[in-house]
């Protein structure tokens, strides 16, 4: 990951200004501007390209991307710093951004000196005016989006493992239901076995941190399990090279399901993988997905 600091950004802003006014190649910029602001021109070029603010066009000349144009259009230095921070988070996806859902102080305690200084100079480390609040709300939304994307990726790994496992078990390729419709309350449609072709619906949950993790089961997913004859929950532990699987019946799951009471209705429940520890078995699957 690139270094990101006010000094580097000042050099980048100067580079973008120059590029917006002049048709120059990469080598021409380096020879004409050995330093930009307080940093070497090479650093500014590398950062601007990494951040997707600059690109080389078909004539070999450096040109601003739409993202670079948007950055340069910001009305003052602080606004440019703020937009540059958002661009950096979007491109680099630093791990510390996940703390944004817990508030500003939590983020600042993890970002390191350079990013903290950038936040200070952008006027974002303190205060609560509308622009500052909007920035931190935007950051929290980005953090939630990154978390959702990661959880989706992990979930798909487990679903693919279930599809491979079921095809080997039954000799028939199951249907990957959640790819087409994620609201049916289950992920994979298989059959009971190679003799009994009755449908078997499967809801898949996946952990990358072993049995110390937990999964969330929605009321819709639970309701689906209660209206079909054959339903299983596949719980995958993919924290090790040799994945393990627990096949949980509705009866085994039910003891961990809450009840609606009075005017209250439950929507989602968090259940530790560890409560089904004795049900996990290592799965030997030659077509296992390589993600860890």
Give the structural class.
Answer: alpha+beta
Strand order of the largest sheet: 5-6-7-9-10-12
CATH top level of the largest domain is: Alpha Beta
* Second-tier CATH architecture of the largest domain: 3-Layer(aba) Sandwich
Order of helices and strands: HHEEHEEHHHHHEHEEEHEEHEE
Question: Based on CA inertia axes, which overall geometry fits?
Answer: elongated
* Average pLDDT reading: 91
Oligomer: single chain
Gyration radius, in Å: 26 Å
> Which sheet architecture does the biggest sheet show?
6 strands, mixed
Overall tally of structural domains: 2
Description:
With 292 residues, this protein is an alpha+beta fold. It contains eleven helices and twelve strands.
Please render the helix and strand layout as text.
Blueprint: H1 6-21, H2 26-32, E1 35-36, E2 39-40, H3 41-50, E3 54-56, E4 62-64, H4 66-72, H5 77-92, H6 104-108, H7 113-121, H8 130-170, E5 175-176, H9 177-180, E6 188-191, E7 199-207, E8 214-218, H10 219-226, E9 231-237, E10 244-248, H11 250-254, E11 268-272, E12 281-282
Parallel strand pairs: 7-9
Antiparallel strand pairs: 1-2, 3-4, 5-6, 6-7, 8-11, 9-10, 10-12
Helix pairs in contact: 1-3, 5-7
């Amino acid at each position: 990951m690139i270094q990101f600091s006010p000094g580097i950004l000042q050099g980048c802003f100067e580079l973008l200004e120059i590029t917006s006014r002049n048709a120059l190649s990469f080598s021409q910029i380096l020879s004409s501007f050995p330093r930009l602001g307080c940093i070497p021109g090479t650093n500014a070029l590398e950062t601007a390209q990494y951040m997707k603010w600059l690109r080389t066009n078909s004539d070999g000349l450096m040109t601003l991307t739409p993202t670079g144009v948007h950055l340069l259009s910001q009305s003052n230095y602080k606004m440019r710093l703020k937009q540059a921070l958002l661009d950096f988070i979007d491109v680099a996806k630093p791990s510390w951004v996940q703390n944004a859902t817990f508030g500003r102080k939590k983020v600042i305690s993890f970002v390191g000196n350079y990013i903290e200084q950038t936040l200070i100079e952008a006027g974002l480390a303190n205060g609560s005016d509308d622009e500052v609040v909007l920035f931190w709300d935007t950051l929290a939304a980005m953090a939630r989006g990154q978390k959702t994307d990661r959880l989706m990726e992990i979930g798909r790994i487990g679903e693919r493992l279930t599809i491979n496992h079921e095809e080997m078990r039954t000799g028939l390729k199951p249907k990957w239901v959640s790819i087409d419709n994620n609201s049916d309350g289950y992920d994979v449609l298989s059959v009971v076995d190679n003799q009994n072709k009755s449908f078997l619906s499967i809801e898949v949950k996946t952990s990358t941190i072993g049995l110390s993790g937990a999964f969330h089961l929605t009321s819709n997913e639970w309701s689906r399990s209660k209206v079909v004859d054959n339903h299983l929950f596949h719980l995958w532990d993919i924290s090790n090279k040799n994945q393990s699987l627990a096949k949980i019946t509705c009866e085994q799951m039910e003891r961990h399901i809450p009840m609606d009471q009075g005017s209250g209705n439950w929507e989602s429940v968090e259940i530790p993988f560890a409560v089904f520890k004795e049900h996990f078995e290592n799965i030997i699957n030659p077509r296992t997905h390589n993600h860890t």
